[in-house]
Write a structure and sequence with these properties.
about 1000 residues, 14 strands, about 60% helix, about 5% strand, single chain, 45 helices, mainly alpha, three-stranded antiparallel beta sheet
């Protein structure tokens, strides 16, 4: 039997009936679990255990006849009853009445099952496994995984469950072995396609269930190694060697020993999944160059000069050519055109990046290097964090390859130095608005405007010979008015080409008005501004207003609904204006219903707003409407997620409405998709007149911090707003901002900073009449005190919090504080009180119809029940909470609930399940929750691993946790030291 083969059920061919039977007449049999027979959706009676044993023996013969003697032996073995033959006939008769004589047939003194194709789940599983084997052989690993998962999904517990007899017992053993083989194959595929982090949890549980199965240990070692957990991978080997010696008196098989050696040597090939091409063996060939323009015109001397340098790059030191010139002069167009012509000289690929050097947010070199390394086939897990390490790996990856790198729109030489290949045979083309005089060894090219002849040729190619030939002088006037800048010429020509009723003279007359463009070309941005002036000057008044005002908003892009609010227009009217701006290339459509400006165009639009908006109040009103839109909509999302929570009653009022949602999923989709522009609006609105609404928008969008999404941006913006509130002397806004920051720092495990912010908020709250601060500042400080084991202070603060929430008639807040107090009582040792308080909180949440916060209550109750020794109840409450947290995309709470479930299973003496949940918690908390929470999970994971005999791996987890706790000066250090000093594995004695 091969690795993926199981006991075969061969169904003989049968003549198809002339009519397809009704669906409810089709028989299906299950043997991969309890033995069942179903006709359509109805489960048929299968009789006594011995009768099911008879049915099992017939089903697993695949349509072949079983004699009475064979059936007696299958059911009773060597000790049949005296009336065994009569019993077999009785069982067969009863089954025939249930299944029909056409299904259970008498044949040559025995019996046979006549079933249709795919009637038995085992047959289906075998076919799926065979198809998976074919898919894998053909290289389609993803399809093979899908097929194997379908096959494994057919199992419903133990095969042939509760079926007696030696035949069933033998088949049960064989089927379980086959199931394990299929699982190993699927896990092997998981590792091949790079799903190593996800596989660790399942492999940890399987090695606990099958401690002597070396293949599972081998897969676990590989998964841990590829997840960056080398020490744990080596500890698995040590655990395995000790267990095999004690249980069997043997050493690990050679394959496992060889794997340990490869891990000790930090084998790079082992670290790379099979689907991830090796840098040297089968390199990825990137082809990232943007499309060249079909109407490229002129620049012949530059094309020859640059092309010659690129063609002779082979065998010489790296060639670097840097093109400089004012905005709109055609640097990118020329560089892309030359790069396409030189592709044949760089057979290993071409890399491209827009470095956004002309804007205020130039691309970071380490970010670009990460993208380049991925394009060259480097796995995310193999990409280091620091700039120097990434640059070194980048140069190493390019060594021996011929790659052309196009670095477009660079800010300065410092930005691009880490991005240069540094090896012979490679070349780099750089474009920038500044001359790279400090870029050693670069061939500098200063790109000027087009000659009048080239400019007219480009204009003619876009507009068409027929229209230009009759108005040549007017065409010369147009290109002259454009300053012979290629981008300006292209914009003007495109507008003319799109308007068949215009003559060239009409366009020339429009451009002749110097009030609508700069009097003369100047260096730098002014030239770019003159170029955009051409498109802006041709806009209708409403379009021009929209262009000016929309440019005022910070953020990477803006949604149609937000734009409509800013412009104070109906959505359809705003969409018409925005699409018109897209047609003129002044605005880009980032995605359906979303729009963005190029950085330079945004700056130009703002200069237009300052110049053309007569009243500054109009600009301020536009941004105020945008802030109102975000605040009103975010408050609606908050209220939908937390009905009954009075936070929304304490937010600043808005004069303009936002969006409303009836569906929780749609509301959260909006919040997360708008995260960056929403937070940018908060930061932009931190002036005195809008600071209160800005802070309240942070409060309403707190899910962005709690879920882990955009947490860094949220923290950065909250810090800016806090400082702005302090500067303006707005104590209420400062207190709210500090309370919010306290929660952000606490979530990240930075308790010193969290405590400082919370205490400052408390101090501010004492001097102001703000019930929200009176409720939430002590609540946050109490949570932090609880984490730091300052339990007396935490209890006092929570009593104060509960009283404040009751004063505000905020039952949702009161429920939250009760659940927090439950955790404090639990830590003090008042377990019964903790269970009662959590129950009170849940009752309040349930009366309010809260879903998300009810999950928080169940989480608190689950902790209390665990400590009370009521593990089954605790598991139920925590599982209910986990489902809600996942649906609400609360990554922090999802991870912590998985961690608490691990504690439940550990307390219930189920270490394998505890290890499985701990691994899942580590995966979820990878980017949220901070090091303190990760160390707590590692501590429990170590306890679980020690409980399943993996003592060495357990110590690795504890040492890593201890390092974190010691760095944080956390009291948990002593607990972990105790574990390291007294770890005893039950299987390691």
């Amino acid at each position: 039997m091969g690795r993926d083969d199981g006991p075969r059920v061969r169904v003989p061919e049968q003549r198809a009936p002339e009519r397809r039977p009704a669906e409810d007449a089709v028989l299906h049999f299950s043997v991969l679990g309890p033995v069942r027979a179903r006709r359509g959706g109805e489960t048929l009676p299968s009789g006594s255990p011995q009768q099911r044993a008879l049915l099992t023996a017939l089903l697993l013969r695949g349509g072949h006849t079983a004699t009475a003697a064979e059936l007696i032996d299958a059911i009773w073995g060597d000790d049949p009853p005296s009336q065994a033959l009569a019993a077999v006939r009785t069982y067969a008769s009863r089954l025939r009445k249930v299944l029909g004589p056409e299904t259970l047939a008498s044949d040559s003194g025995g019996y046979a099952m006549r079933t249709g194709p795919d009637a038995v789940d085992l047959t289906v599983a075998q076919e799926l496994a065979a198809d998976a084997e074919k898919a894998r052989a053909s290289g389609d690993r993803c399809e093979a995984r899908v097929l194997l998962n379908k096959a494994l999904g057919l199992w419903d517990g133990e095969a042939l469950a509760s079926v007696p007899g030696p035949y069933a017992e033998n088949q049960r053993t064989r089927l379980e072995e086959w199931r394990l083989q299929l699982t190993e194959t699927r896990l092997d595929l998981d590792l091949e396609v790079g799903c190593h982090a996800e596989a660790v949890s399942e492999l940890t549980a399987l090695t606990a269930a099958h401690p002597l199965r070396e293949r599972l240990r081998e897969l676990l070692m590989v998964a841990l190694y590829r997840s960056g957990r080398q020490a744990e991978a080596l500890a698995v080997y040590a655990d395995t060697r000790r267990l095999l010696a004690e249980e069997l008196g043997v050493d690990p098989r050679p394959e496992l020993a060889a794997l340990q050696h490869r891990i000790l040597q930090a084998d790079e090939e082992l670290a790379r999944p099979a689907d991830e091409p090796a840098p040297a063996g089968t390199p990825v060939r990137p082809a990232q160059l943007p499309a060249t323009v079909p109407d490229f015109t002129g620049r012949n001397a530059f094309v020859r000069e640059l092309g010659t340098r690129l063609a002779t790059a082979e065998g010489s030191v790296m060639a670097v050519s840097a093109l400089a010139g004012i905005g709109g002069v055609g640097k990118t167009t020329l560089a892309v055109h030359v790069a396409h012509q030189a592709r044949k000289h760089f057979p290993d690929g071409q890399l491209y990046v827009d470095l956004q050097g002309a804007g205020s947010r130039a691309a970071e070199p380490e970010t670009v290097l990460g993208a380049f390394l991925r394009a060259l086939g480097t796995a995310d897990s193999a990409i280091p964090d620091s700039l120097d390490e990434r640059a070194a790996l980048y140069r190493s990856t390019l060594d021996g390859r011929r790659i052309l790198v196009l670095l477009d729109n660079a800010h300065d030489a410092a930005q691009i130095r880490p991005l240069l290949p540094g090896t012979e045979g490679c070349a780099a083309l750089v474009t920038s608005r500044v001359r790279m005089v400090d870029l050693a060894g670069a061939h500098l090219v200063d790109l000027d405007v087009m000659s009048p002849e080239e400019a007219l040729q480009l204009f003619t190619r876009i507009v068409g010979d027929e229209r230009i030939n009759s108005e040549r002088e007017a065409a010369l006037d147009v290109v002259a008015a454009c300053g012979f800048l290629p981008l300006a010429i292209r914009i003007a020509a495109s507008r003319l080409a799109a308007r068949r009723t215009w003559t060239v003279s009409v366009l020339a007359a429009k451009l002749a008005d110097e009030r609508r463009r700069l009097d003369e070309l100047q260096a730098g941005d002014l030239a770019v501004k003159a170029t955009f002036e051409l498109g802006y000057g041709q806009l209708e008044p409403a379009q021009a207003r929209a262009f000016r005002l929309l440019g005022l908003a910070d953020g990477p892009d803006i949604s149609l609904a937000a734009a409509a609010a800013l412009l104070n227009l109906e959505t359809h009217a705003a969409e018409d204006l925005l699409e018109a701006l897209v047609d003129t290339s002044l605005v880009e459509s980032a995605a359906p219903g979303r729009y963005r400006y190029h950085d330079l165009v945004r700056l130009y639009a703002r200069s237009c707003a300052e110049r053309d908006e007569r009243l500054p109040e109009e600009r301020e009103s536009a941004l105020s409407r945008l802030l109102d839109f975000y605040l009103a909509t975010a408050a609606g999302v908050y209220a939908l997620e937390r009905p009954g929570d009075r936070t929304v009653n304490h937010l600043e009022g808005t004069n303009h409405p936002g969006l409303s949602f009836s569906d929780h999923g749609q509301a959260l989709d909006w919040l997360y998709s708008e995260a960056s522009p929403l937070l940018a609006c908060v930061q932009q609105s931190s002036a005195a007149g809008t600071i209160r609404r800005a802070v309240d928008l942070l409060l309403a969008s707190k899910d962005l911090a709690e879920s882990g999404a955009n947490s860094r941006q949220f923290e950065s913006v909250a810090t800016v707003v806090r400082d702005a509130a302090a500067l303006t002397g707005d104590a209420r806004s400062e207190a709210r901002a500090r309370t919010t920051l306290a929660q952000v720092h606490s979530t990240a495990g930075r308790f010193d900073q969290a405590e400082d912010e919370a205490r400052r908020a408390m101090a501010l709250g004492a001097s102001i009449d703000d019930i929200w601060t009176h409720c939430n500042a002590p609540n946050e400080l109490a949570i932090i005190a609880g984490y730091r084991n300052q339990l007396d202070e935490a209890e006092v603060l929570l009593q104060q919090t509960i009283a404040a929430f009751r004063t505000d008639d905020n039952q949702a807040g009161e429920a939250s504080a009760l659940c927090n107090l439950s955790r404090v009582h639990l830590a003090i040792g008042r377990t019964a009180s903790a269970v009662d308080l959590a129950g009170q909180g849940i009752d309040l949440y349930a009366r309010l119809g809260l879903t998300l916060r009810l999950a928080n209550g169940r989480y608190a109750l689950g902790l209390a029940l665990t400590r009370a020794g009521r593990q089954n109840e605790a598991e139920g409450r925590l599982s209910e909470a986990l489902s809600v947290f996942r649906e609400s995309r609360q990554r922090l709470w999802e991870g912590m609930t998985l961690f608490r479930l691990a504690e439940v299973h550990l307390a219930a003496q189920r270490p394998a399940r505890a290890a499985e949940f701990s691994e899942q918690a580590l995966t979820v908390l990878l980017h949220v929750g901070g090091e303190w929470r990760r160390a707590n999970v590692l501590t429990v994971l170590g306890q679980a691993l020690d409980g399943i005999g993996q003592a060495d791996r357990a110590k690795v987890c504890w040492r890593e946790a201890l390092g974190v706790f010691e760095q944080l000066k956390a009291p948990e250090s002593e607990i972990v030291r105790g574990l390291l000093g007294h770890s005893v594995s039950p299987q390691g004695r």
